[in-house]
């Protein structure tokens, strides 16, 4: 299936299917008939109506087929045609079949604005992310969109690029487009955001967290526990001097929780995470490079650097290579998310696997359940997984002489439930 993107403005995109029609797309079992609330059973041979009858039908001012045209061709009342397209359970199977055949033969497309006015729903969902540059968010958005399609909803996506002052404007713009529900990341948002959503009585799902929000529902995992478990794996390799590269902790509970998880694991060993070794940078490859430059310029260097995203870690790995720092022989580096590139870096990146696709899938199901006031199952607390790869090795002081000269090999996976 091919998709095109229609730009709405500088920060909005709507994904829409294009190309040949199909009845199934992937494991979700999505079909265009379901998305349009049109049963697959309604398809079949075309109506045996002569082209002359179609051509003799009165044309609408726009020249496009109307619902009246559909009713006339199907030889049913206007009300029956409308009910068939709105709620197929209200009409007889024979009537539904004739209406659907007329729709196909005429190429009729329902007026979305009129449908929204009649139903007070747009069958669209808004999602605002901190950034669209993070591959982990991209994976989650993909699963979110696929699942929403299966329920007949379209997705409107936007980002605020970690600019707190911009988030409210972005959220308000999406809400003004009449979405039926909203998905945000994390629980820390300006009070104006929560006030707006609450005033509109808009169903809200907050993702990538299990923290209790002031309004809405959550789908996610424990950021603190994931960082804690990965830090224990780093400590098990003999590391005591550990630095953390993270995003801004202000207005971002996820960043604070990850730093907190590392600090707690170190404290259990009688170690302290030094504040000057917590380096905040934009969550990007460039941010990882800049942070590693600062670390390499320190008089005393850490033996392990834990990055709060894989993109930060990739930048840090690159900077070590540029300066001739052998990873992991001289310094270990870990990431967070387990994006596809994490296993392809040199050396492969130790990280925490976050169930990004599950976050998208369960968020969609939870939000649709809230919108339609039906039980689609309570989303579980999702599990993370510590993934040990070659970028994490023993602390330099613990290496045997022969190990210092060569590259450490081998990998292991340790499952940790959040």
UniProtKB/TrEMBL annotation:
One of its GO terms (molecular function) is DNA-binding transcription factor activity. The keyword Transcription regulation applies. It comes from Variovorax paradoxus. Residues 393-418 are annotated as: Disordered. This is Catabolite control protein A. PROSITE patterns: HTH_LACI_1, HTH_LACI_2. The lineage of its organism: Bacteria, Pseudomonadati, Pseudomonadota, Betaproteobacteria, Burkholderiales. The gene is ccpA1. Pfam families: LacI (PF00356), Peripla_BP_3 (PF13377). The keyword DNA-binding applies. Keywords: DNA-binding, Transcription, Transcription regulation. Residues 65-119 form the HTH lacI-type domain. It comes from the Bacteria.
